[in-house]
Amino acid sequence: MSKFTKNLFKHIFNYGFATVLTSVLSFLLVPIYTRFLTPTDFGVIDIVNMFINIISVIIVLGLNSTLSIYYYNAKSIEEFKKSYSNVINFLMIISLFAIIIFVFINNQASFNIFRNTSKYIINLSFITGVFTALGQFPFYILQFRESSRMYGILSVFKFFCTAVLNIIFIVPMKLGALGMVLSYFIVSTIFLLIGAIISAKYYLLFLNLKDILSMLKISIGVIPHSIAGWALVFLDRIFLNKYVDMSEIGIYSFAYKIGTLMYILVCAINQAWSPIFMKTANEKGEEAKKIFNKSNKIYILIVGIINLLICLFAKEITIVMGSVAYINAYKIIPFITISYFFNGLYFMIINSLFYTKKTKYLPVATVTSVIVNAICNSILVPLIGIYGAAVTNVVTYITLFYIVYRLNNKFYGIKIPFNILFLTLLIQFIIIGFTSYFNVKNIFILIVIKLLLIILYLIIIKYSYLKEFNIRDLSIKKWREKAD
């Protein structure tokens, strides 16, 4: 393995380990939260998280993506210092005015932006979103300098700070949703200060509006794509906030916490797959496409099995991870895992657009998917509430995957075995639908039946379309050997 590849995998491990570790630990904390937070609290927290993410995306005006261009094009460290300081000082001024104006308007308004959410929580969430956005810029410097280990350590430390404060505010102090919002605010403030220390040697009292305008000309084009990406994740919450009770949003949010199991798997595969894809595409030429086509079959097999496991045992997982108030979340979980399944297929394909440098077409996929999401949510959420939002997410991610797949066909040509994909999903739907009508009171008998159905599923898959398939092809090591 070359020095470049080793270096690449080292950084992937550092970033990936931090991401997976914090995701797994966050999932394990769910039982604590559900014991001390009502579904309404969970709903408020979900809306607050959405709001913080919106603010952190909008307030930076896309300058975060522009900064990397100036870093790599800078002829000296002094030149980059001016660019970095320009961005930071400009955004600090903008942020100060934004906070003052928002808090004033919000306090004077005769209504709340979000139902069942106090003005105090909304104000605190806005400030947290601003601090989170500003505090992220020093972390970009760590990425530019390839300081992935420090980046990963700080990410894990940030998670532990948030988790400890959450538990203190929620368990002994019993502050509910306000407790979590306070912990978000405190941690964002702490890491804003840590970020200031990290980037101190890059900071100057410097502001050049002409240079800022030049940067904004580049960054403005990124904003629609960033907002569209955000909308894919959070648009359902906006419709749910309008049409359903906050307790229902809490159940929906809890179901997504369980769906994190699939999200962790998909992200881990994506982090491992991206460098393998680029290396193989560069070195194998047209032969690489055959490897990628077979890898897509592997993905459908592995992730399909995991999806079936989570769906079949969704009720049992819900009972273990949550209180009785969240029991209906298990009905939402299959829709969420299917959404992540197609999100993973999107990750498997999208690398081809980066390889062929056709990323300018990505907004076609994201914006179209957002439009589909908005239309479906506007129709389904008023009719069937959180189930409408769940169905909409499945439709949205299928749309996103299919458009990127069509773009891939035009510019590169990786194939997805749709016959295998359809058969896999059809069998899973039949099994999940069949078990949903079981009325077996003995939990052990029910688990045995579900395990037997999984074995039956594997037998059907094996003899339907995996006759030419070698089980050794499922290993990451085998993928890397093919890439080498």
From TrEMBL:
The chain crosses the membrane at residues 12-30, 50-72, 84-105, 120-141, 153-175, 181-204, 216-235, 255-277, 298-326, 332-354, 361-380, 386-404, 416-437, 443-465. Pfam families: Polysacc_synt. Its main location: membrane. GO terms for cellular component: plasma membrane. It comes from the Bacteria. InterPro entries: Poly_Biosynth_Transport, Polysacc_synth. It is found in: Cell membrane. This is Membrane protein involved in the export of O-antigen and teichoic acid. It comes from Clostridium cavendishii DSM 21758.
